[in-house]
């Protein structure tokens, strides 16, 4: 595709006068500055198709501008690539319908974990279409030290039962010292409070008006976006 596009390019780079380009065999290569790897030069005609492949496709999953740009520049080069990526994503209809910009910065937590799996954050997502095993919800667990995220499918949005199921199947040794959640009713129930007391876990909650202080909430937005994008494509 690129070979044909270069051959038919009405405005190819001037290899005799423009820096950052060279021809090797039948292909033109480019690079942003000396010392960086040579990459395939992409003519104007096929840039939109590459942008669609690296942003719009199901495999790409509509990543942000920085991630899309990094993926493209591993293999390709053209001047103004970053600006073209930003323009493409800004005009992406699906991203505009699905992705939401955060207007409130999350407050900085006063609790700083010092080792893995001692302080974790929890959140529940769903309901989703019922699976063959009757799962409709997803429990998202984030280690606040490493930011490692694990997910666990569950039938009902009941934190004690969901946490106990994950706890029984997890390879983690022991329970965390503290669990951070939002202020949802499922995390303020008497049963959940009693469960934490029984396991000697300290409950933490995010500020009522700043639920995104919970890092699990931020990861949930990424998971939810991927699920919505899939549903939009399938027309559901």
UniProtKB/TrEMBL annotation:
Residues 1-20, 157-176 are annotated as: Disordered. Residues 112-236 form the Integrase catalytic domain. It is an enzyme of class 2 (transferase). It comes from the Eukaryota. One of its GO terms (molecular function) is RNA-directed DNA polymerase activity. One of its GO terms (biological process) is DNA integration. Its EC number is 2.7.7.49. It holds the Pfam family rve. This is RNA-directed DNA polymerase. It comes from Trichogramma brassicae. The lineage of its organism: Eukaryota, Metazoa, Ecdysozoa, Arthropoda, Hexapoda.
